[in-house]
Each structure stands twice: as C-alpha cells, then as structure tokens.
Specification:
With 318 residues, this protein is mostly helical. Helix content is 74%, strand content 0%.
C-alpha cells in the first residue's frame, strides 16, 4: 500500500483550499434548506442521501472503485485494516447535521470559525499521534502557534459577536467538536483510500456510513414531528450532497501529501473566505459582526503560520 506522492505539497494545499470553499457553499445550502423544511435531520439525510446516489453511479462506472471494494474487504478480513477505520462517514454526518441545526442559529461565519478551531486542534493531535496515512508528524512551533491562533479566533468571534441574533455563546462549542470530527474524517478516509487504492471507494464508504446514520436520525425525527410539508422548488437547495462528494474525495486524495493538520488548515482558509462572502451577500443569521471579521482574520493568519516550513531538529519536514 506504500505509494509515492501524486501531488506536490503546494498543489495539495491549493486544492484543499478550493475544496474548503465548496464546504462553505454546502453549509449555506444546507442551512437554507433546513430553514425552509424546519427539520435539520431531514435536511442532513437528504444531503447525504443524494451524495450516496451520486457515488453509486460513480462506483458503477469506475473499475478502480469497484476493485477497491474488494481490496477493502480483503484488508479487513486479514486484520490489516481495522473495521473502525471505515467509520469516517460519522464525522461527515455530524458536520452535515450541524449545518442544518446550528448554522441557521449562529450564522455561517461564526459556525465556520468554530469548525476551524476544531479542525486544527484535531489535525494537530492526529498528526502527532501518527494516525493519518502519512504517519507521525511532530508539532513544529509554527503549527502549534497556528493552532493557538485558531483558538483565539474562536474566542474573538464568539466574544464579540456570539450573542443576540447569533445565539448563545456556548453554541460555538458544537462546531468546534464537529470540526475535530471532520479532521478525523479526513484521516480515516485517507486510510481507506490507501487500502483501496481508490478515492472513489473511500468516498463511497464514507457516504454509506453517513447516510445510514442520518437516515436513522431523520426517521426518528419524522416519527416524532411529522414529514416536512414545505419543500423548496429551487434546484440549488439539493446540490449539497454533490458538493460534499467533491470535498470528501479531494480530502481523501490529498491527506497523505499534506498531513491532517495542513490539509485542515488550507481547507478552512477556503471555508473562511467563502463564509465571509456568503455572510455579506446572503446571511443566515444577523450578518457579519466586528468579532467575526476579527476572528476570521486571525484564523486566516493561523492557517498561514501553521503552513510555514520548519527545519528544526526532530521535526518531520513537509
């Protein structure tokens, strides 16, 4: 399963940043759909379900993807790949669910800044523990500094703009937790891709797991509160799943090259830039505040600092 890198690090970071913009787009779409439906659980299940349908079609036409399913089975049966590694879709399911439940309450930018902190904290820890497909990556001073700045960004955003129309301050803890789950998702999907030798296979497995979890939650919600009656007719409300397939596939392909932390950092840079643009043009809750602007700027600075090369002793260079 050992392979040489297919991308230079800078290209992996640029690609991840562009994918991050798509994540912000997905958050805006699913947040808007949740407002229209009045049910975040159904919104999340619809988004993941559409993504799964797309991946079924892609898998059907991808010989490499179908072969990857067989490789995954063989790796799991031989105990070379722990079965829990296949659960990366759980992180994606939590993210999509929080898009529908939390984003309408706190706004896209504040939600995204919270995701940033969770991703960089989770990425730093997973790289340090050597859980990603690229092995152990020791925390260099720039990466630690970037992580600290990401946490400061959350404090700025929540402290100066986390009340009133943006909901209670404690809501910021939800996207922080979910962001750590997203870092774990990238790590696990990268391991699945390495075993399957196919990003299509890794993405398909991700959507199977996420759809099962979200479908179950949506079924319980519908049983309690009923089926949503106001389904929007605009097609763009239903492309969140398609956007998610691109992001997950890109992350699975690039995590080995960039590492979990730097992949998360570049991804959230794209998320932040797009989130501010959406909050300016199509806000979900209250629009931009001074705290959000300050927090976003600090979070972007965190990304830049964490991505700086470090040649100190004992550090693994990337």
């Amino acid at each position: 399963m050992t392979r040489t890198r297919s991308f230079p690090v800078w290209a992996a970071l640029v690609g991840s940043g562009l994918a991050g913009m798509l994540v912000a787009l997905q958050s805006r779409i699913n947040g808007g759909l949740s407002v229209r439906l009045g049910n975040g659980y159904v919104t999340a299940a619809v988004s993941f379900g559409i993504g799964l349908l797309i991946m079924c079609v892609v898998l059907a036409v991808s010989r490499r993807g179908r072969s990857g399913i067989g490789r995954i089975r063989a790796e799991v049966r031989a105990a070379r790949l722990p079965s829990w590694v296949l659960l990366g879709g759980t992180g994606g399911a939590l993210f999509v669910l929080s898009q529908g439940l939390v984003t309408p309450l706190m706004g896209l930018t504040l939600f995204t800044v919270g995701i940033v902190a969770g991703q960089v904290l989770g990425g730093l820890a997973m790289d340090r523990l050597g859980l990603g497909p690229g092995g152990r990556i020791d925390p260099t001073p720039p990466r630690v500094a970037g992580t600290v700045l990401a946490v400061i960004a959350v404090v700025l955003s929540a402290g100066l703009g986390g009340t009133g129309e943006h909901g209670p301050v404690w809501l910021i803890l939800i996207p922080v937790f979910v962001g750590a789950g997203m870092a774990a998702q990238s790590m696990l999907n990268g391991l699945v891709r390495a075993a399957a030798q196919s990003a299509v296979t890794a993405t398909f497995v991700n959507f199977v797991v996420g759809t099962v979890l979200l479908g179950t939650a949506a079924a319980i919600s519908v049983a309690v509160s009923g089926w949503p009656s106001d389904w929007p007719s605009e097609p763009y409300f239903y492309i969140g799943g398609f956007v998610g397939t691109i992001f997950i596939a890109v992350a699975a392909m690039l995590v080995r090259t960039a590492g979990v932390l730097l992949l998360s950092m570049s991804n959230v840079a794209g998320q932040l830039i797009a989130a501010v643009a959406f909050e300016l043009g199509a806000p979900l809750a209250g629009g931009l505040t001074q705290g959000m602007i300050a927090g976003t700027a600090v979070a972007l600075l965190a990304v830049v600092i964490a991505a700086l090369p470090w040649r100190g002793s004992g550090a693994r260079a990337r």
